[in-house]
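This follows on from our talk about sequence and fold. Please put the record directly below this note.
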Amino acid sequence: IPLLSKYGNLTNQQDFLQLVDDVCALVELNPVTWNITFNRNEIAKSCNTNSIFEVFRVIYNLKSRKENAKFWVCKSMANVNFAREMEVVGILPKYIYLYRDGRDVACSFKKAVVGEKHVFHIANKWAANQKACFKLHERTDTSRFISLSYENLTNEPEKEMKRIGTFLNIPFNPKIFDFYKSKESQNTAIAGKMWANVVLPILGGNSNKFKKELSEMEIAIFEKQAGDVLTRLGYQLIGSHLLNEKPFSEVQISTFNYENNLLKEKVNRFADPIGMERRKGQEQKIKEILSRY
């Protein structure tokens, strides 16, 4: 999306074909392989409008047909920020809002090769994403929006999956809990440590890790930045009393920025080499796109 303006007027078929080619290339270079090569002209002709969101829809539809699937799901957290644009071009999906205690999310992002690393930045990003989901929920018909917590899903998986099945009009089948034995899970797991857990069964009780993995001050910083969202989602605050209600000063934020960059560098130094190697293809493609303009 940030590069979209560089393609000129997408009503120009040549510019649109260039966009289609680049999007397809990025999917083909995904660290988790899709095992598919796209016919660019076929995709362009299948789009109802010359829109990146239509390219998105058509690519997923093609992959679905190849897998004989009736449904497809994109789990990217970024989608919520573009829901309005998708709906404007006629894409009206069902939304599954899966939320998790943001402090546990911070524990995961601190170790991941992607994303922010300081709890101040993670809290801000997490809160912004949840608020975007709240707004989407408010303007979306209940037949197309369902909310569920990660904690309920992992502790009562059958109950929650039946609820999702009803929402999607899909009959419940207990075989879904064998997902971790599938070829798709194995294919995903070999892409790097970031996806290692997909070859494991549901991790029941995998919550409240932050109480052991975050310091008291980290918990307090997170709650200061995102406590209102945690409370709205039903999570209890435990560390907000350690800090006053005044916003962080510019000096403090500058320090957080510095620490965030140091933490990113540290994660990159010790990152999973297999995962990093698999990301190079997309990184090089982005550089190539930028070099054209």
In short: Residues 119-139 form the longest helix (21 residues).
